[in-house]
């Protein structure tokens, strides 16, 4: 009988420990190779640990325990590995009683639904067992359930109406985290900060203490971009297999503005100023575990379809807990979209050490003056928060005006003017 240790995997040089937040399997369960076993929360990312081999698992630590990289948290008994999956029609002689029991219990070898999947399934009425999974080993993810819920039912297609313009589902709102340890009165409850939420809090306070933050505002008429999307959406989907969203327009507009106002693409490093000459753009994503900012690499070299795919892939990894440190590091500028939650206006906080962040907001029809006439247009407020130590007001306003001009006249993005 072989015993295989299940260890906390290395996640990067800067991560030495984390909290084993939950087990996806029960004590004594039969697991398959590559099946998710546990969820690990660190101060930077949340990741899953998977089984290297098939076998019967013996758990060594309780959920909520702080563990170190390389620590053994479970043991896999591989004597039952042959029983995992499809059992042979006629058991070989000498098969142990334990192995026979494992082979006759298929429910223990199926992928358990994560809490996020179960919650979304309850909200949408979608049965996860009826949809194909895109996760490792065919596991159904939260994104799979959301996609199934958004897909039109065959009987509804005749009455289907065009969807209202919206941002990509990169920052879908999540349900409030479940609280625990209710007080005796029932009026309060307490829960311990996760390492990730604690780190987010520290970084937000650090950004406000260390930078001379200032925010400037503008508004943008979304008519032109919305018209382009409506005109070319079907052709875009046919060619690329994904929808054209607003975020790719803003990403392109930001890259162009960074080229024209390079002070925004710089950062402090002690008594030096580092000028960046590349354009890795962070796109904030809301997850159940907190806000994450995966980075779209070399956005200046990507087409609209490439940007949409990169954003969609990064958002899915973040929501599914598959995000890595490499996905989050190295951004020079961040775009955050509070509009998906209905936010009218906000002052976003810097994503240190970056010197600026652009906040997008809800699109609302408002009366505006155009050529001396009052007309109704789909308007959005833009907010640029920046570090005044590096960026002067003139540069910040110029940057925001460049973004506004590119969105209101998207031909500028094609001509780079």
SSE layout:
Elements: E1 3-7, E2 17-23, E3 30-31, E4 36-41, E5 46-50, E6 55-59, E7 65-68, E8 72-77, H1 97-103, H2 115-124, H3 142-150, H4 195-210, E9 213-221, H5 223-240, H6 247-260, E10 266-269, E11 272-275, E12 281-283, E13 285-287, E14 290-292, E15 295-296, H7 304-319, H8 325-328, E16 333-337, E17 356-360, E18 364-370, E19 373-387, H9 393-408, H10 411-415
Helix pairs in contact: 2-3, 6-7, 6-9
Can you describe what's shown?
The longest helix has 18 residues. The N and C termini lie far apart (69 Å). The chain is globular. Strand 13 and strand 14 form a beta hairpin. Strands 9, 12, 15, 16, 17, 18 and 19 form a seven-stranded mixed beta sheet that branches. The chain has a four-stranded antiparallel beta sheet with strand order 1-8-6-3, with no helix packed on it. The protein has a four-stranded antiparallel beta sheet with strand order 5-4-2-7, with no helix packed on it. The chain has ten helices and 19 strands. By secondary structure, it is of the alpha+beta class. The protein folds into three domains: 100 residues, OB fold (Dihydrolipoamide Acetyltransferase, E2P), CATH 2.40.50.100; 40 residues, Dihydrolipoamide Transferase; 220 residues, Chloramphenicol Acetyltransferase, CATH 3.30.559.
């Amino acid at each position: 009988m072989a015993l295989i240790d299940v260890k906390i995997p290395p996640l990067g040089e800067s991560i030495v420990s984390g909290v084993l937040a939950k087990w996806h399997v029960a004590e004594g369960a039969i697991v398959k190779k590559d099946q998710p076993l546990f969820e690990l929360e660190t101060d930077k990312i949340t990741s899953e640990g998977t089984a290297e081999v098939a076998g019967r698992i013996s758990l060594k630590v309780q959920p909520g325990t702080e563990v170190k990289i390389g620590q053994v948290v479970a043991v896999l008994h591989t004597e039952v590995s042959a029983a995992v999956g499809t059992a042979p029609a006629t058991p070989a002689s000498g098969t142990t009683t334990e192995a026979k029991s494992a082979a006759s219990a298929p429910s223990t070898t199926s992928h358990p639904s994560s809490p996020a999947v179960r919650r979304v399934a309850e909200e949408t009425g979608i049965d996860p067992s009826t949809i194909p999974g895109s996760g490792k080993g065919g596991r159904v993810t939260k994104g799979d359930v959301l996609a199934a819920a958004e897909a039109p039912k065959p009987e509804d297609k005749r009455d289907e109406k065009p969807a209202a313009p919206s941002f990509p589902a990169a920052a879908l709102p999540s349900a409030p985290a479940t609280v625990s340890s209710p007080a005796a009165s029932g009026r309060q409850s307490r829960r311990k900060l996760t390492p990730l939420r604690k780190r987010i809090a520290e970084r937000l306070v650090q950004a406000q203490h260390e930078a001379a933050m200032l925010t400037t505002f503008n508004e943008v008429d979304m008519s032109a971009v919305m018209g382009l999307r409506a005109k070319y959406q079907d052709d875009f989907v046919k060619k690329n297999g994904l929808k054209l969203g607003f975020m790719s327009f803003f990403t392109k507009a930001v890259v162009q503005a960074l080229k024209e106002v390079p002070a925004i693409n710089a950062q402090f490093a002690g008594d030096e100023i580092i000028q960046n000459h590349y354009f890795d753009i962070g796109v904030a994503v809301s997850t159940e575990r907190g806000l994450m900012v995966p980075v779209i690499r070399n956005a200046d070299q990507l087409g609209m379809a490439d940007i949409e795919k990169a954003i969609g892939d990064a958002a899915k990894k973040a929501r599914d807990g598959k995000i890595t440190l490499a996905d989050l590091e190295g951004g020079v500028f961040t775009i955050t979209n509070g509009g998906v939650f209905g936010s009218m206006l906000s002052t976003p906080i810097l994503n240190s050490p970056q010197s600026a962040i652009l906040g997008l907001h809800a699109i609302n029809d408002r009366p505006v003056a155009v050529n001396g006439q009052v007309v109704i247009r789909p308007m959005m407020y833009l907010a640029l928060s920046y570090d005044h130590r590096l960026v002067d007001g003139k540069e910040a306003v110029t940057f925001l005006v460049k973004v506004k001009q590119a969105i209101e006249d998207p031909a500028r993005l094609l001509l780079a003017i």
